[in-house]
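so my prof wants the structure for this chain in the tokens format not the other one, which i didnt know existed until like an hour ago. anyway here's the sequence
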Amino acid sequence: MNVSVEMYRRLVEAVPEGIWVVDPQGRTLFSNQRMADILGTDFESMSQLDCFTCIYPDDLADAQRNFFRTLAGDRRPFDFRLRRVNGSPVWVSISCMPMCDDKGIQVGILGLFSDISERKQGEAALRESEERFRNMADSAPVLIWLSDTNGRVTFCNRQVLIFTGRTEPQLTGQDTLELIHPDDAETVGSSVFAAVQAQRAFQIELRLRRADGEYRSMFTAGTPRFVGTRYLGHITITVDITELKRKQDHVLAMQKLESLGYWPAACPRL
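here's what i got, hopefully its the right format
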């Protein structure tokens, strides 16, 4: 079936990507309206552009490397920041391939450009949010852990690293059962596993090994994290209650002695 020039034109204008064909020097040979929209210019002006004028000076060397890589036959897509005609940035995902004439002689490059600015802005906002959370978590006087849907650590704050004497790479992707007193590990493991499976909150007391080898009494509270209805894991806060429990045990012991009518002079009242 013969396809008319008009049909080709309609197909080219119907695709959601920008189409830009340039010669080996980067000068425009062909483009569609969508490409003009991405660059913030009118279609008629596209013929006057070459692709390298749409690059920020600091990015030019990287752009040229990608350009000549494509000319050499490497078709791997890449993300890149272009400069619109008004000077504003636009992030695009680019898929390119060499163009040859009827004799097989390379005459340029065909590129498909997708505007991914919204995605990049979302990624930047997420990084900023994560950085704010990390700064807040690192300034907190308690141990803070984030875990995934399998209960494995994805983040821990500075207090966790100080307490355990471990580095973040040593803890990330791991569970923490090896740090828990052997007499507590089974109960803690089953309680946390049940909470993860049910995607519910939990509270538990346990003994956790400090960097110096001492087991400290800890109170741990975990809360499930969601994005919309999607469960991401738990955020867990752990507090050292060793001294509090010692004081409680001391008070209980003194109360028991007092109930028996005995109060040693050497045992001060709290």
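also thought this was worth mentioning. DSSP finds eight helices and ten strands in the chain.
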